[in-house]
Amino acid sequence: TMGYVLALVDNLFFQARIQAVAKQIGVEVKVAATGEDLVTEALANPPALVIVDLNAKSGPLDAVRRLRGSETPALIIGYLSHVQTDLAAEASGAGCSQVMPQGKFTQELPMVLARARGKLEKKSL
User: Which of 4, 25, 61, 73 is 20–30 Å from 116 (CA)?
Assistant: First the structure.
């Protein structure tokens, strides 16, 4: 299967933004409704990249821990409000590859997705 990006993002406006950037870059993004769905989907169909809103209502940290405990080698990027230093530390401890403030994540989104696409292309060769 062609690789893809899996996201746990509560905010519909932000979901739409990620989808729009992904479309420009030519990457498929699937949005999981809950942390549980994220884990189920990632285990069934391993993504190249997982994006997690660390303020999602449905157990984002638990989902990250479960992914890290599995065979899914995905890059996991979590984003949060820039003032949430405790949550950032907790997210890194849970297994996020990168944790960044939402503003920075928004700026870097095209690069992040392009990098994921590069990984996808290498994988599918």
Answer: 61
pTM surpassing 0.85?
yes
Judge whether 70 and 77 are in contact, CB under 8 Å.
Answer: no
The Cα 33–Cα 121 span in angstroms is 27
CA distance linking residue 65 with residue 78, whole number of Å:
12
Residue type, 102: Q
Cβ-based neighbours of 40, under 8 Å, separated by 6 or more: none
Name the DSSP class of 106.
Answer: H
Residue 111 tokens read as: 């690069």
Number of residues assigned to the chain: 125
CA angle 79, 85, 90 (to 5 degrees): 75
Q: How many CA atoms lie within 13 A of 64 on its CB side?
A: 28
pLDDT in tens, 9-41: 999 999 999 999 999 999 999 999 999 999 999
